[in-house]
Structure formats: structure tokens, C-alpha cells
Amino acid sequence: MANAEINLVGGSELGLITDLYNEVYKPRVDITFFENRFQNKTNALSLIAEVGGRPVGFSCGYEFIPNVWFSWLIGVMPDFRRSGIASQLAEAEQSWAFEHGYHTGRLEYISHYHLGLQFALSQEYNIIGLCWDNEYHANTVIFEKDFSEHM
Asked: What integer pLDDT is reported at residue 28 of this predicted model?
């Protein structure tokens, strides 16, 4: 298991987050993808995981509704997967959210993204619903977790 240093970063680091995203996900995006998502969001949070000073992962989230935190996006570089980095990022994000008054966490994954579904369950999130996503032509699985039971 890799021991990552998790750092809170600001909007000035969206370029780095964009670069990391493009190493993890397809299709490629530019910085406006993140700028647009964070526009008008309350408490937008971005975390970077570093191992040996090298950025290897990221996590982004924001307030969904008052008292509910939405963990929007998490990614880990391919050569650091299955080393605990995603769990360390999720735990850091959940701790930050709880410390800032969010008692419930929410995640959403497209139903055919099996790694995401497994990750949500491994983080002790519960399935609370499904909704159809017209963009991906698939169901989105909605997860929630009571942070106060886990902190």
C-alpha cells in the first residue's frame, strides 16, 4: 500500500487536475471542464495525492445541498491503482466534509463502471437509487453514506 501525501489545492491547480484527469479518463478534457463544473458551487474542494513528490491522483467535490457533500470525481494514475491511493483520497475528502458540517456523503456512478461501483461499496456507501442518464444511455447508481457513523 502506497502512503500518499494528500494536499488540499485551490483553483490555481485546476491545470494539474486536468492533466491528471486526462491520464486517467477518456475523452480528454480541457480546464474549462472543471471551471464550468465548479462555477457557482458551494465549498468546491480539490485534493491531490502525491507519492514521493509526484502527483498520482486527485479528488474533487462540492456541496450537493446543505449538509450533503457530493464527491464528484476521483482518479488515480494507472501505475498507482490498487495501492490504496483512492481510499486515502476518499477518506481525506470525507473527513474534510464532516469537519465542515456535512453529515451525509453522496456518490454517483454509471452502472457499467464496475470499478466505481465496487469502490463506493468498499467505502461503505449504500445504494439509495437509480436514475437514467441520457448522455451515457445507462442507469446511474446513486450512493449515500452517513459520515457521522464513520467519523
From this structure: 97
Closest CA to 4 of 106, 103, 97, 74: 74
Q: Which three cell numbers stand for residue 119?
A: 469502490
| Residue 97 CB coordination number (10 Å) | 25
The parts of the chain modelled with pLDDT lower than 70 are 151
For residue 43, the model assigns a pLDDT of: 96
CB 124 within 8 A of CB 150: yes
Q: Taking the model in full, what pTM does it have? A: 0.94
Helix (H, G, I), strand (E, B) or coil at 13: helix
Phi, psi angle pair for 73, to nearest 5°: -155, 135
Q: Which residues contact 151 (CB under 8 A, 6 or more apart)?
A: 94, 95, 98
